[in-house]
Amino acid sequence: MLEYNEIKERKVIVYEGAPFEILTSHVFRKQQRKPVNAVKMKNLITGKVMEVSFHQSEKAEEAEVEKRKIKFLYESKGKYWFCEEKDPSKRFELEADTVADQIKYVKQNNTVDLVSFQDKILGIEVPIKVELKVTDAPPAVKGNTAQGGLKQITLETGLTVNAPMFVNEGDVIRINTETGDYVERVN
Questions:
Q1: Fold: same for 65-125 and 129-140+147-185
Q2: 0.90 exceeded by the pTM?
Q3: Strand pairing partners for 116?
Q4: Among 22, 84, 74, 78, which residue's Cα sits nearest to residue 53?
Q5: pLDDT in tens, 36-74
Q6: Which CATH number applies to 65-125?
């Protein structure tokens, strides 16, 4: 059980029987009243975001979220095929809405975490930073680059991001999967 002030970002709690990930939390005190933790949390099953206030006397149960390593194999007709990391013969498919936005950062044969709660698959979790190869980058154009110019490039997974002008086709770059932004050039 978590006290009201231990309910912080990135924690997963059980609220009304469903797992919720805490997106933001702010403990504050209004005038002479007792402290309150105002949190914004996302239902991991439905994706609905809601705001709740936990008072000083309230507690929340920490969710037992299981993670296991799986390997991404391929995509076919809107379904994504994975297998167990150690046993490729154990294959299974996940729907597009289950893998959501995370799959665009995953190359074939890469490992990711499968996240589940009480034997119900919630989705996949990718590393915070991934390295992807640039497949299409328009040439840099001379012009107003005093503030640093950006161009839109395409990566090997089909993802398009804004990157600095010096990034060329064939470069390997690092992407932040939480924001979807360019971080740095690797090679």
A1: yes
A2: no
A3: 66, 121
A4: 22
A5: 888 999 887 777 889 988 888 888 888 888 888 888 888
A6: 2.40.50.140
